[in-house]
Design a protein that fits this description.
The structure is a homodimer of 124-residue chains. The first copy, chain A, is an alpha+beta fold. The first copy, chain A, has a single domain (2-122), classed as Nuclear Transport Factor 2, Chain: A. Chain A has two helices and six strands; from the N terminus they run αββαββββ. In chain A, strands 2-1-6-5-4-3 form a six-stranded mixed sheet, with helices on one face. The first copy, chain A, is globular.
Chain lengths: 124, 124
């Protein structure tokens, strides 16, 4: 599964770099059918997801990926399930927050879009 | 998505109760094509997954689910992506471990099997 892991790494590098520097730029990764569940709140469509992500109440944010796992998610299509755990540093806080995030990536042309996105902070 | 959340709750209640009382009983939830990534190690097939789960080196284990999220994972099939975060109490340790786990459930007859399973402990 070397390819899948490489794609997952490339995707998450791009996703978190974009999230941390230009959140509005994430819109291109979602489609009308895309779903985000953010801390339990369900949101659908690229426009609504982008509105949610850009309105999150922090000025500065940095994702640090701790673990990254990927599996093929459909025998008929080259879609990929990606699971991330990591740390979120918000507004230079000295206490990073743990998070878990799941994506399902669907192939489209030579790239992928995000059909499923589930984000949770993990409180100890 | 009430139905999906109810199915996810029913599945995870059954899964963790079986894990905590009779790990070998989990084999029925997996198929030949099923994948488990356990702490980064990829394992495939119901038999290999069951062998891994039953050989984990703890005598007594208890899962406590903290968050549970579910989304439909395929427009063409009633499959479900389930993401769990929670606490794992191993051998009555006073310090529970945080974990994240992702499942993709695929409909089969009137029930579901697990195609994807990704488990990670979350270290702070």
């Amino acid at each position: 599964m070397a390819d899948i892991n490489a794609i997952a790494k490339q995707f998450t590098d791009f996703y978190y770099q974009t999230f941390d520097t230009n959140r509005a730029g994430l819109q291109n990764l979602y489609r009308e059918s895309s779903m985000l569940t953010w801390e339990g709140a369900p949101i659908q469509s690229a426009a609504a997801i982008t509105e949610k992500l850009t309105s999150l109440p922090f000025e500065k944010v940095q994702h640090k990926v701790t673990t990254l796992d990927a599996q093929p998610s459909n025998p008929a299509v080259a879609s990929i399930l990606v699971i991330v755990t990591g740390l979120l540093v918000v507004d230079d806080s000295p206490s990073p927050l743990q998070f878990s995030q799941a994506f399902q990536l669907i192939p489209e042309g030579s790239s992928y879009y995000v059909l499923n996105d589930i984000f949770r902070l993990n409180y100890g």
